[in-house]
Amino acid sequence: MNNANGIPVEESSNLIQIRNVTKLYVMGSEELYALKGISMNIARNEYVAIMGPSGSGKSTLMNILGCLDTPTSGDYFLNGKNVSEMDDDELAEIRNKEIGFVFQTFNLLPRSNALHNVELPLVYKGMPKADRIERAEQALFDVGLQDRMKHKPNELSGGQRQRVAIARALVNDPSIILADEPTGNLDTKTGQEIMELLEQLNLKGNTIIIVTHEEDIAQHARRIVKIRDGDIEADYLSKRGKEIQRPDGE
Amino acid sequence: MNFWIEIRENLVIAYRAITANKLRSFLATLGIVIGVTSVTLMQTAIEGINRAFEKSISAVGADVLYVQKFEWFGKEDFSYYRNRKDITMNQYEYLKDNTQSAAIMCPSTGTSKVLKYRDLVLENVFVVGTTDEYQETFGANMEEGRFFTKNESDGAYPVCVIGTDIRNAFFENADPIGKSIKIGTYSFRIIGVVEKQGSLLGLFSLDNRVLIPIERFFNLFGGKRSLSINIKAADINDMDETKEEVRSIMRKARKVDYGDRDDFGVNQQEAFKTTYESLTSLIKIIGTLITSLSLIVGSVGIANIMFVSVKERTKEIGIRKAIGAKRRTIMYQFLIESVAICLLGGLIGIMIAFPISLIIDAYVLPTAMPLWVILLGIFVSLLFGVLAGFFPAYSASKMDPVESLRYE
Ligand SMILES: Nc1ncnc2c1ncn2[C@@H]1O[C@H](COP(=O)(O)OP(=O)(O)OP(=O)(O)O)[C@@H](O)[C@H]1O
Ligand SMILES: [Mg+2]
């Protein structure tokens, strides 16, 4: 098994393996393959950026990787488990334990404060209140929001909201953090700050997959996967990826 | 997943959802408030009517059998009963000597007479002729004086025991004991006053009666009349056996041929109850149905609000699902919300109905909201909360996470 650059990768180090994944949307008599048989592997601790024009299937792919959606055909192994055969509740459990989502529009619960938003995945995990608070406070501390815990989303800036969302994604110690255009609704400077935060998380050992339109955002990742019309067009190491690769690589 | 953690969270969500939209929550509960108010009041009223009825027939005595010429509430044509023979003292003696399962029995008969004390007159007083055993048969307590003795009874003494209505009419402040009154044209000495007994079915006052020894009654007012034999059963739990025994002895006493139907009635309080129930059960059912209808309307309103609430919170559902909420969790979330709204409405309804029941009690009909009606109100609002919330909650739980996240 080789990765995108032809470098042999041990099978077991693959966190994500997808094989010939397709996604078909049927609208009336019209059929549309949003994904046309994508295969790829993502190893633990990778930092991947998915790029591509609008409508190319990036979000569709992310939703499948995040177990929000299931492929029409093909297989998806996450941590060695075949996710494509799971039912709704099993998928919910995988999302809860293995996956942290960061959305373009933040998707925080408007009536809950930052702390409670971050606490929520732990509620669904069934963790007792005291432990939840401790973990959620730690996660908010990690994203630099220790003094905004009691603020509701509408009392926070866009960047702060996205930090809350990242804290929420982190709090349950997931295998992967998925971010679909996390900087899409932020100005350049705030976007950069968010990217730095994600980078730190990657350095601490988190596996991260982001979707982005912007080349300079994508350059934060180590590997870039380009998608066009539901197919992988290119899969290569970013500049940073190559820099990091060299010292310990060949 | 820990069930209680989930429920606690859902309670918090429900609280927030309800308080975030106070006016809408208030309007939503209104239907249930009205429903529970009317259901609990209806049941309270029914309870009041039942109690009033029970009280009004309590003088009949639950453990007393009445052997009489006719059955109470008999269903045959009058011609069927017309030729029946009277119940006589001989039959009474025979029954008394042969019945094992009766604690005590007494004969009684009666007629209406004019009562006079000095220049005071009472028309239409019911005069009862009976024996000293009457007091024990009915457990009639004396308010003043005493009942007549066996000696006075057997010896046909001119003594009488009066009811409280008569005492009040004749002796406002004076002591009635020892005073002489006239029943028709005959003088009697008052030896006792029976304590207030109320009325039978609210129609026939039991306190407007005067009781005299039966032998004297026969002498003065004529002996050719049918008796009622009043029998107190030895054990209220064995009423049926006692009734059977009395029947078979009476058949012998009256020489009823084998195979012929009884030519007398062995009556008991039951007869009133059965008749009462057959008269009122339909009214009760209809009343309950009509009030339930208002509950159903109320819960349809809640279901409607819940559908709106689910629709509005599509995005929230998507978010919750994305971070790990299972179908069941989402389902509980909305079910708990709808149950909370209904329960709130139910409690408000009970809080409105309770004081109204006190007003009814004071001015209309002696009643009290029994505990079971309160529990019923709570149970019913829980039930309708679940019913109203089920389909909205189910539709929420089935939502596709990707589509709900995209919803704006
Ligand atoms: N629920 C759906 N029903 C029908 N077609 C859909 C649905 N979701 C996505 N598609 C189609 O699938 C294709 C891929 O959509 P997708 O959202 O993955 O694109 P994208 O790469 O994320 O685009 P963007 O950069 O604009 O977000 C599009 O042509 C889109 O119209
Ligand atoms: Mg997209």
Word description of this protein:
The complex is a heterodimer of chains A (250) and B (408). Chain A is an alpha/beta fold and 250 residues long. Chain A has helices at residues 58-65, 88-98, 114-125, 129-142, 158-170, 188-203, 215-218, 239-248; strands spanning 14-27, 30-43, 47-51, 73-78, 81-82, 99-102, 176-180, 207-211, 223-228, 231-237. Chain A has a single domain, classed as Rossmann fold. In chain A, β4 (73-78) and β5 (81-82) form a beta hairpin. The longest helix of chain A has 16 residues, at 188-203. Chain A is globular and about 50 Å long. In chain A, 47% of the residues are buried. Chain B is α+β, with helices and mostly antiparallel strands. In chain B, α2 packs antiparallel against α10, α2 (22-57) crosses α12 (327-363) and α10 runs parallel beside α13. The model of chain B has no long low-confidence stretch (mean pLDDT 90).
The overall average pLDDT of chain A, rounded, is 90
The helix/strand order of chain A is EEEHEEHEHHHEHEHEEH
The proportion of strand residues of chain B reads 15-25%
Number of domains of chain A: 1
Radius of gyration of chain B: 33 Å
Radius of gyration of chain A: 18 Å
Name of the CATH class of chain A = Alpha Beta
- Spatial shape of chain A: globular
What is the topology?
The complex is a heterodimer of chains A (250) and B (408).
Chain A: E1 14-27, E2 30-43, E3 47-51, H1 58-65, E4 73-78, E5 81-82, H2 88-98, E6 99-102, H3 114-125, H4 129-142, H5 158-170, E7 176-180, H6 188-203, E8 207-211, H7 215-218, E9 223-228, E10 231-237, H8 239-248
Parallel strand pairs in A: 3-8, 3-9, 6-7, 7-8
Antiparallel strand pairs in A: 1-2, 1-4, 4-5, 9-10
Helix pairs in contact in A: 3-4, 3-5, 4-5, 5-6
Chain B: H1 3-20, H2 22-57, E1 64-68, H3 78-82, H4 89-98, E2 102-117, E3 120-130, H5 133-138, E4 142-145, H6 150-154, E5 159-162, H7 164-170, E6 180-183, E7 186-194, E8 199-200, E9 204-205, E10 209-213, H8 214-221, E11 228-233, H9 239-253, E12 265-268, H10 269-312, H11 314-322, H12 327-363, H13 371-397, H14 401-406
Parallel strand pairs in B: 3-10, 5-7
Antiparallel strand pairs in B: 1-11, 1-12, 2-3, 2-6, 2-11, 4-7, 5-10, 6-7, 8-9
Helix pairs in contact in B: 1-12, 2-10, 2-12, 2-13, 4-9, 10-12, 10-13, 12-13
